[in-house]
## 1
Amino acid sequence: MRRISLFTILLVAVALFGSACIKKVTVAEVLPTQTQMTTEELIARIDSYGRVDTFSAQAGFLVRNYFTGKENKAEEFPEANGAIRFRRPENIRMLVTAPIVNSKVADMVSDGASFRLAIYFPKDKRQFVHGANLSDLDRMAADELKKIKDPQLAEAGGLINMRPQHVTDAFLIKPTPASGRADVFREEVLMEEADDRPGKKGRKVVRSYYVVYVLDRSDKGESELRRKFWFDRTRQGTPLVRQQTFENGVGRLASDVWYSDWFKVGGTNWEWPGRVVVDRRQDGYRIELTLEKDSVEINSELPGTTFVLENTEGLKDVDLDAPRKASVTNSRKPQPSLPTH
């Protein structure tokens, strides 16, 4: 004879007692999912972006500065236009122009190790800045900005933490490490979110995601979380909608990249997001790029001058590595010998 627990009896008694008072409440709609995918298929989807050697497009730029806002407000700059060029592994060119007048605001190139930035507007800030790409460990925290004596740097806020590789990594997605150097697994995550379907504003839905975890394995055999990839199971094609990266050995979220508005690039089999948002909340900034879909080119030939930027307009030269170079030079100078007796 099956035994019934006291807890079950209690629940039944409560249900019978309250049956006359039962009411219906609105709950979030659970959206249907697409065809199931295996872990191997999801990994293959991630690794496929490793075949993107070059990427070109015209885009709109929208930048948000978290550090210079007050309370829960952030500063958002007027939208600008521009061109972006990427070449694997880490080459980037970004030319930003002002809307309507179509005049240059800034131009930047980077090879992953160093960068060059020409600032054309505003006129009183025209300068040619260059130096080594700083690592994530060199970031400036919000409370440290208050200690900066240079008013221009303090005014820059989170923008002082911008790095070319933050954008490059969002577009030139790195494949998962070779077998034996990483642990890769997935889980299903249910998230209650706002309904973004037409005519459904104000409602809630439950979406299902495949989340792929990529953990690098060190020489000591220790595994550390590096990246998480989110695939939306409720949308056609189960698209990649989010990539999160984490700091080495710390596990702190470094970059949160969101992908949406996927489309097929003309003349190719590539599916690509029309909107890419790189959110670096810990660094104090967020950049949103909206691509002009007809301008997107993947794996096209880029001229040799694409990633070359010289100070042809005689802008004020600012070498960010000068203090470090001076320090190294001084340390190498021969030291005076001690007097001998």
Note: The longest helix spans residues 6-18.
## 2
Amino acid sequence: MALWTPEFLQTQKYSAARARLMMAQAGIIQEGIFDLGDFAVTQRGAGANMSVDIAAGSAWIKGDDTARQGHYHVVNDATVNVAIPAAHATLPRLDQVVLRIYDSTVIGGGKDGVFIEVVSGTATVGATLANRTGAAALPSSAIKLADVIVAAADASITNAEIGNLRRPRAGQTGYPAAVSPLSVTGAPAAYAMGRPAGFVPAVSAIRSGSQSVAGSTQVSVLLNAEEYDLLEMHDNAVNPERLTAKVPGIYAISAHTGWAVNSAGASRTMTIRDLNGNVIQFSGHAPVAGWGHNYAHDHSLDWYMGYGDFVDLRVFQDIGGPLNLEEGRFAARWIGP
């Protein structure tokens, strides 16, 4: 028949698939994890070996073995350890840790439930987390939790070899900085990052305390604190002058700096640059004796960034010696694809 019986007529009975489909199409649920840290993949807590730990958490998985299969609710209430297949003797291999649904009503067989699996790629020369060379296709009715690069003759998996989709700076390597999760997973931005509907990536990094700025040179604003950072777009220690996009799109970017009181006239500037060092916003003041804390600069602009692109904030002054920067704020908010 072309038309299904509508939910919920008192005289009818309905399958589990109908309930799953209804919730998905009503926008009640989306595929992905519930919260940052859910199902996070890390090296074995009891000592690194050829396995990884999967954190507790909750998720929804879209069934795509057949049309109109709906979404499945998944809960993990304790850390699970999963073995990684033995390394190739001479070549690296890109494996994927996935959360997968088996529903015998849909695909047949006698297997039902949710399982954490490792989908091994093909050992390939030059495979890395960044290029994902040799990676296998993602199975049906599954979400990816992490990529794992298994080095040649590897005897243990460490955090530096794990790239979590929703934690781009996992370990020292993290998720590929040159590849968008959208192109990898084929999912909308909020899904790829394991975030709920309506989630908007945003960050506001600030300078806490004075920063001495040397004279007559461009200096990075060392933003050492955050008012908020919803998607690890800023690091207080590594390149603290940068805001890095983790979802491609147009960002509303704003910046503010304010200088200490100084009686000497001086030129003072603030510059926003892109990842190639190109100036995309600039403002400056000619020497004005006595201008002090109110000697400030403010910028705002819309700017497109791909995954891994960044903007940075710099200042300049030429009073003839060091001068304190008393205020610094750098913010970005995703406003569209």
Note: The chain has a mean pLDDT of 79.
## 3
Amino acid sequence: MQAIAEVLEQYPLGVVEECVDVRTGIARKLEFLTVRALVEHLEARMDLHKTLAAWRPRPEVRALPPPPALPPEHRATMVERFRALLAGMRRAPDPITSLIRAHRRQAEQQLAADRAKALADMERA
């Protein structure tokens, strides 16, 4: 037992926890645990972790094409068209506000009808 503890002390805690986990560790792989088998297992796991730690994705670098050169007349017409679009959007009625107002009118009409019916029912009683 002392030898196993000394071997496990030489490795990082994460690798040791992975090794001694009964669900996924060395106990699921070996019928009889020897110090040699334990060291081999730990070394294999350390190699895997070192490889994973050293891996760095290499981003693909692509140069963007330069934007097309547009004449100043085109820019001026685009600015005017954009201003006209914004002005049209400001003048257009907001559909959400229109729906809210229609719902409020309907709710007020329903409330008035309910009140009238309740008063009529109270007068008959």
Note: DSSP finds five helices and no strands in the chain.
## 4
Amino acid sequence: MATGKASDLTLYNDQFIGGYVETVQQNTNLFNGASQGAIRLINELHGGDYDKETFFDLTASLITRRDTTSVSAATDLAITSDEFVGVKLNRKIGPVGQTLDAWRKISKDEKIMSFIIGQQSAKATAQEMLDRALAALEAKLQSVTALYHNATDGTIASTDLSTGLQKAGDSSNDVLIWVMHSKPYWDLVTNQITNAIYRANGVKIMEGVPATLGRPVLVTDSASLLEADGVSSGVDAYSTLGLKAGAVTIKESEPSRTVLDLVTGLENIVYRLQGEYAYNLSLRGCEWDVANGAANPSNAAVATASNWDTQVASNKLLPGVIIRSR
């Protein structure tokens, strides 16, 4: 009696769709507590293209010498006010379309598309918000000479962190956190190893982290922290930000809306997904220049320093400090 074996049969390999969905791989966990409150993400519904907050200016010559021999009239000082202004950025998701036939061919319900795009857009939305926030911070801080340390003569070193903090003067204790690209982060680790650090920060290196003058570090490979050929041809520049509380605020200012729709009238029926949302972006101590930057600005406009006007009397009230290195 002949018994059939596997080798007697023609075998077809199974192909299947797993639950893995490729998403953005940049570290986007920098909001709120993760950044010591330097990068704030809040939900606050807000109409219009801008959000404005009034504040009172510093009253000049508030304290002066009093002449005890005089009874002449004293001149009143006026209290003046100004405003901080943030700008609304309108965003869309998709549209993403796929024929129903395509889903049938892989034996899947078309509604799986909302699951896939949902996973991808959640991460992509956080990345886009973070990148715009860092781009605005980088541009503004680099434009303020008093807050900018140029270390592009080499890779970042411990002394550069110290020099960067010096830019904040006696408000250096207000710098809560470093935000940097992974390139300068590992340059810092390597530099500390190379320069014979076997003391307090030698312990840090053995733990796989650099000594950073008592401030935590958040590492994110955001394109906003990298300028290709920023030093010279073939030599990129990297920005390291030392941020204070409320350095940047992102307000989710409109309800997000996602629509799933069947599109007919084509050769094949299409399943389409499209979404919309908006958020307001504001920098500590700054006013969005409505005349120059305008409403719903482009990414380039957000990253233009002249569109973020300083509204405070002291640079110490701005978002922090910046270090540029190779």
Note: The chain has a mean pLDDT of 89.
